[in-house]
Write the structure tokens for this entry.
Amino acid sequence: MDLVLDEDGPLYLQLARALKEAMATGRLTNGTRLPSSREMAYDLNLSRTTVVAAYEHLRAEGFITGRVGSGSYVTSPWSAPVRPPPARRAVVAQSAFSRRAREFSTLGNIPGHRPPGMRYAFQYGMPVVNTALTAQWTRELARAAPYVQPNYPRIQGLPALREAVSRHVGRTRGVVCTPDDVLIVGGTQQAFSLIARVLLDEGDQVALEEPHYFSARTLLQIHGARLIGIPVDAEGMQVDRLPDPAVKLTCVTPSHQFPTGSVLSHERRLALLEYARLGSGWILEDDYDGEFRHDQQPVKALQQLDRDGRVLYVGSFSKTLFPALRLGYIIMPPGLKDDLLVAKWSDDFGTPSMDQAALAGFITSGGYDRHLRQVTRKLAERRNLMRSLLEQHCGDRLEIMESHSGMHLVAWVHDMPAAEGEALIHAARERKLALYSIAPCYLQPPDRTGLIMGFSAMSPSELRDAVPLFAKCLALFPRRAAGDRSRPALYLASSSG
Amino acid sequence: MDLVLDEDGPLYLQLARALKEAMATGRLTNGTRLPSSREMAYDLNLSRTTVVAAYEHLRAEGFITGRVGSGSYVTSPWSAPVRPPPARRAVVAQSAFSRRAREFSTLGNIPGHRPPGMRYAFQYGMPVVNTALTAQWTRELARAAPYVQPNYPRIQGLPALREAVSRHVGRTRGVVCTPDDVLIVGGTQQAFSLIARVLLDEGDQVALEEPHYFSARTLLQIHGARLIGIPVDAEGMQVDRLPDPAVKLTCVTPSHQFPTGSVLSHERRLALLEYARLGSGWILEDDYDGEFRHDQQPVKALQQLDRDGRVLYVGSFSKTLFPALRLGYIIMPPGLKDDLLVAKWSDDFGTPSMDQAALAGFITSGGYDRHLRQVTRKLAERRNLMRSLLEQHCGDRLEIMESHSGMHLVAWVHDMPAAEGEALIHAARERKLALYSIAPCYLQPPDRTGLIMGFSAMSPSELRDAVPLFAKCLALFPRRAAGDRSRPALYLASSSG
């Protein structure tokens, strides 16, 4: 039986869901006998206990009858539909939005996506989450819930949260704003989405860093933007290479360039603001993890220098708390405030109140600051550990980019062309280790192998196992002498097999 | 001092926030002496206790110094900004979306909006909320939170919730679907928003009932749709008046037409489906409160009859639980599934997980069904009470439309032109009673006075006070003899004053 588990929660519930899905779609019809728990366990490589628990669960819910031993039979509530569901038919794209969505869609490209079945994954964009945080969050929710107004939320966000955010970003990031400038949104993705709608028509030019955050790129493409990649060096985006006439919107990560980690220099900040001012353009400052500065003072936000109201500052709690929360904010420049509010109104009437209230309490009570300090310390430890492990095990095979904040490092493999990098990722995956190529972060991927190596979602002991495993995978692809352009051993082996 | 309280939570916190807002925007600068609590209480018509509590709160947070009696002085953290905030400058609309948003925006048009300072409001679209539900929801959250995956949510929604929803709508609404057809969204507004993006280009024709749900209309206008209103009678939308060639999308509320309450007849349902099939068009079935059927069997969903995959069925938990939750769903036709998923991806990466998990538990445990039964019983009681109170106090001034479900009634005032209806609403508001005109629900408002009278957000005893008050307001506008087109007394009085 061909069942796919969804990797969400306990295994027995995953299996129960997969079986229900098979019933719902008609692959398992009423009266069908299920394989014995022993057969099913063998087929799916699960323990028999898991299968028995799944069957018991389905029995309790009335999806199967019979007893272990004498066979289990499907009694699906979906077995006698009023009409067969309509066939999945190809429909031509119904709008320009859908046409572009079909062209550019990369649904799998969620930050921190972990392929199923891996032992280790250098996931990036995944925060340090521990049970203490989950427990604390549950307490904050329970504390806030009774006081939350059940009515439609404020479109702009809960006043208490807007106040807490404005004070927090003012204090920690130097952002100049009042609570009235804050728009609470459902994470960075919604921030980009609202900004795209308010600023862009199909064909409008948008400049973004090369490399960049791929989800933002895809989103902008789906909204019809024409993208121009601006190269990045150790001082961030090469602002002097921005096109003339000026683009409508420039997207930057000035505090910690994603993914390379460089910081936009003061001169370039001023030049970028001047560019936007002269061209009546806009700047989207994505400060996705600027709070995680490990070994020196945090770099202040670009927004602080903006005297003309040209910067839309975007922040998120996905990295500092956890992504399932879906909370972020835009610090709106005065001229776009009303348009952004209407866009948010039109999108969803406002962000759910309960989480907003809990977060406002968490920030105001000082708990959020304590959490940030703890996480920053942990991230610094893991970053230092991973750096030294990589140096120890991979030696001079890697060029690791300087970065003093965040949750990942970028490592380039010396003299390894991109195609060979793909083979490396494939070989690692067969050994249950997930690696992440930097290539999707480019409009024009370079012909060398770069990896984004997240260290936030692995404990120190996992890092101590995962890095040597990575080194072993790397050793499958021996370094070639300069000028040697022959295919490496592994290619020859696999092409003969 | 000109302070506006935001009506959110305890009064002293509202006042404290308003003062902080004044500090943040520079209206109250560092060192300013605040009015004494006595003066402030008098100015704002608040109790002195409230003002003292607000001052104490600000003192505790470090926003003011000094003691009660000797004067309080502002020590705002915002008093010395790095730069003055940029002036709020008029910016021309930056995109076609923004141009339309500025033309059609009606930010105040949130269902159930209650103007500040009212004693009673015939709010509609506001669910029956009680402290028992809030407490129960808090428990569901606390139960679910520790098991929620902190990572990015599924774009399509939590598997457990999709399964619970598909079973629930199958059982209660006759909707034919599997968990794989369910897309969890942030309420009806996001459902409309995603559907508009996936189906519509600027200028595409959309048919909607006349009258209709005004937020949906505005949203469609902002997305550039050309709208065609189709009149409604006692059998719902007059489907035979749909234009030829067929429109791209038809929006209907077949189970309980909003706001009139009629039910789309079986013949018209079949005709509408045939219209969509022949014209390759789509049907958005907004089943916003079809579960609240007071005195007979629920009307099944139109989706049940759809053999061609042309119906997008939209449901929401805003009415059955509470709007602050921001949870709803689309039952997707097979041909649009992938496009809708990408639209959701591009919009916000998925709906927050915590509330989804709590809701899945609430439905699966049977708590949601129990809650629905209770609420339906309460709604039926309140509807019957309001109907009889209106008949008793307003006699034959009103024509109340038949409706057997939902949370409001529509009442037409005999022989009262629309302009006089506006004066009636104004007069009621001066007596702290909020009335809601039906006019915003029309593309072409009729020249008579219709009111949407919600009964869900008022207790029986409040209804017993509010309806007589309404009758008194109505009596200010005496009924005129047939053919009498002179202005009523109130107009003459106000024009002379």
Summary: The mean pLDDT of chain B is 87.
